[in-house]
Write a structure and sequence with these properties.
The chain is mainly alpha-helical. About 55% of the residues lie in helices and about 0% in strands. The protein has a two-stranded parallel ribbon.
Length: about 170
Amino acid sequence: MLKTMGRRILHTGDLGSASVLKVITNYLATANLITCCEALVTAKAAGMDLNTAYEAIAISSGTSFVHETESQVILNGSRDINFTMDLVKKDIGLFQAVADRAGVPLEMNPLMISIFDDAIARYGEREFSPNIIRRLEEATGLDIRAPGFPAEMTDDEPEEPGYEVIPKGRAQGL
């Protein structure tokens, strides 16, 4: 049944482990979003063409799923990914709680929480999360838009049957 509903199935372990992994991956996506915003604003401030900057990042070691998707709706100006700042704040707050329980002294996540707290105070909690870039646009006076990018993210991954993902170093069936 899972193979019909989804593309990739990963058995994560004990009850609750998938929830921990979900907040970890959402934390990484948020870090990627913030750094993509900083990179695009810096590219514009340095006089770079944003279409060229987007493509250079996409074909380099700096690329990520977040860049290839969210940077496009940022550059379009819609910033519409149907995910809001309050949801990001919840996810990175949950990540912080996991780290705190595990005794991990994080440095980046508290800063990201502060960045989103500021953005929520400025723009409201239901603002689309890619509008985190507005803080930098306002600070620099720059408009980070470029022609030719879509207004919404689309899933162009081809339909295929789902399959089970086996972690590296683990024998299949264990």
